[in-house]
């Protein structure tokens, strides 16, 4: 118990009671009053856990003044004082109860009369009064704070102060007769808050109390606590002085009451949840305790790995995780983790890597109060993680921000109090880090988590990831980096690059058994066997002659051993093969499979039609009734999301899919079948194989997972090597990806002023992943030579210029500066292979920009790299060209594509005139995007251009992202000012590609077009509507919406709304803040100096 006294929490009800008359109250003798009070305290201490229900009580908190602040009349008669206090604040219907005026016959008049009588009492009462006052004051160090709180519909009394550190409180009911502050209307709250504010300068709480209240409002009782500690004797002296002071110097009780009642009458009733306040207070203290634990590097990890116990409860509530695996506990308690060293950890797929990263991120956000960046490989995974962590952000008080596609603000908004968790794709993560370095805020980034770290060795994206990590290592020594992967081999190189510790385990929550199938025989993979495999069993399935021709690999036999009661994934080499295999399996299944969850499967079909404007893929229409579907990039985002949800809930039991599913969202299965050891035409890599079979075995559902690789005799030797050889090494692609790698890196280093001369740039390169591996990767040229070549190329292209100084040996040493074009290219993250082409296109567009339609702007924002991969259907091209309006044909003429040329290509005639193929292809893609923006229906556009709907959606996403890049490019070049306003609106159109009224709903992560339309039709027309929605009502209102989805939508909407509100508050404060260069301030500081 604190020195200053315990906190007493009561749950009270607010209702009318028969009030005793003031005369009868005053008539009671002081001795009787004190005795009554002692009996009352005894009753309160014995009161157990009885509860009384209350009726719609607004939460309030009331503390009595320190005794020295009360008129002496109330000091002598405390019970009477409280009764009078109750008379003031008792009614929730009428502020003044039955006393409706300040007239002579009013309640206040009676109070004044009684006060006068009190002043004329015989002197012999003084002795008893002094004793009473002394008793009261001596008790003030133990129990001078009375908290009256309403919590939900129950009542609670906290006797012991230490219980404020506990998540559960003892509840004690207080009988009406014994309750000295029984009725407290919520309208009094403001009065006591004002009281607290007016006395806040009298003293601060103790260190422990400061920690407890660091992030929650302080209460008056804290101030009283300090006063009672610092001046225990002054109370009696104060009382004595008041008793002997003259009437002229004493403010009458009537004035006190009159002032208070008037203030209360004007006050608005604040509405807040006392339950929520208690929870926040508890959370706040636990966070402060965790901070101290982390700072002291103690072995005591606090309630939940240095985090509040609420985090553990949220994991149980949201994810059903009650206990960590042994390896997770070991990893979180590593000395290197406690000391915040960089860490790489590697475990098999489904081992639970992400949970460790999430706990470390929460420690950084809540305890160390710094921002966190999480880098994920794909947009779909970013959105899945945003949905999953938004609920934690709402409950624990941090922001979750999406940086994917065209979403994300650069630089990020600087938050006033709450910290941010940035969840980004590899490309957006790089841009985010650049913007933080440029604004000098990189040190605010406390932790960077990289999932699928092995992707650092995969082409362009690997080069971008390497650049991002290298910049963080070079510019911020306080930022911790955590990397995780299931498929790492040459970890030593990565450790050296990241200066990191390494942790690995072979743990899997579910045992995985690997099998190979050759003809009718199944072999188990066994590393101890001579040839790496041992005989397991023969397939026993009766095949008809027709079925043997349809299914030579016995896929039907393998899947029917598992489905429909368990789930199964069949990985196929190509997208077309996925669809064919799904149809073939369904043709071979009996009609019994149609009955399994028949109603739910019909709902999935209806839902697919709803999100596709009444359209449904003919393959899915035939396969879904059997519980089978295909899954690849040819599906739209809406379709993929619905099918994944149906698979996760067991409505669908079999997916035929491509290898991208293995690296994407987490969809585990009881059995994983690899249709062939190929991805497209390339033989399977060990990393890919491990990722695919890693999907086998669902933690908490399956006791074992199985993988079966189907192979032909001709591939047997290669497959045996595949299952026995180590994982492939990770190698830097920084130099291989020339324009997107090393040149982009140098341009940004000089643009951000990280390194501006040869020595600094060379030193930076030595610290990259490429620098670590240069002896292996560089055979013909040295790192110095490659550095010089790259800088020369950038200078010749007009992106850099250099200052040359000649030394004694006539060797020049150069300082480099970025040009305007160079800055625009690096700020817009434009591929340097296209930056000069983009500049020419935009410059040419200014000469005759056609704004009669969007076609010209769309052409300028169509991605160059997708144009080079496009193969137009010339008949469709010609048909679309003929349907253009004169203004739109003018756009084609301006970019250099004539109707004559398209007509000749369509008819197969020879063409002598040379035309740039990339321009022709780019215009064709522009036609697709233009048609899509007009019709906003992917299905009709897919049919019109004879292209997969998934490809069209990918084109749309790429165009939205590139449009955002072009916008940033134009912002750096004054001559392109006209594009800024135009491209901002176009980017939004390309991002959502829906009618304008649905855009606010689609800003919420996880809400796609079909769902947005459902919500809009149900009356949820804005972000505010969604943020205030009840998930249970949403489930009943919106068809085919699961409870988990409803909760995620509401959480994401709340998070987005909070982010916008915080940004506006920051903007307001910035506007009202006195500028640092204000003349008066500058002059004053100069004088002081």
Automatic annotation (TrEMBL):
Record keywords, A-Z: ATP-binding, Chromosome, DNA damage, DNA repair, DNA-binding, Helicase, Hydrolase, Isomerase, Nucleotide-binding, Nucleus
Keyword ATP-binding among record annotations: yes
Limits of the Helicase C-terminal domain: 554-746
SMART domains from the UniProt entry: DEXDc (SM00487), HELICc (SM00490)
Polar residues bias spans: 228-247
InterPro entries recorded: DEAD/DEAH_box_helicase_dom, Hel308_SKI2-like, Helicase_ATP-bd, Helicase_C-like, HTH_61, P-loop_NTPase, POLQ-like_helical, WH_DNA-bd_sf
Enzyme nomenclature, EC number: 5.6.2.4
Record field: catalytic activity: Couples ATP hydrolysis with the unwinding of duplex DNA by translocating in the 3'-5' direction; ATP + H2O = ADP + phosphate + H(+)
Pfam family, one: Helicase_C
Chief subcellular location: nucleus
Superkingdom per UniProt: Eukaryota
Bias (Basic residues) ranges: 7-19
Chain residue ranges for the region called Disordered: 1-50, 227-260
One MF term in the entry's GO annotations: hydrolase activity
PROSITE patterns: HELICASE_ATP_BIND_1 (PS51192), HELICASE_CTER (PS51194)
Boundaries of every Helicase ATP-binding domain copy: 334-506
UniProt biased composition (Basic and acidic residues): 248-258
GO cellular component labels: chromosome; nucleus
GO annotation, biological process: DNA repair
Compartments (UniProt record): Chromosome; Nucleus
Family label: Belongs to the helicase family. SKI2 subfamily.
PANTHER family: DNA POLYMERASE THETA, PUTATIVE (AFU_ORTHOLOGUE AFUA_1G05260)-RELATED, HELICASE POLQ-LIKE
Function noted in UniProt: Single-stranded 3'-5' DNA helicase that plays a key role in homology-driven double-strand break (DSB) repair. Involved in different DSB repair mechanisms that are guided by annealing of extensive stretches of complementary bases at break ends, such as microhomology-mediated end-joining (MMEJ), single-strand annealing (SSA) or synthesis-dependent strand annealing (SDSA). Possesses both DNA unwinding and annealing activities. Forms a complex with RAD51, stimulating HELQ DNA helicase activity and ability to unwing DNA. Efficiently unwinds substrates containing 3' overhangs or a D-loop.
Designated name of the protein: Helicase POLQ-like
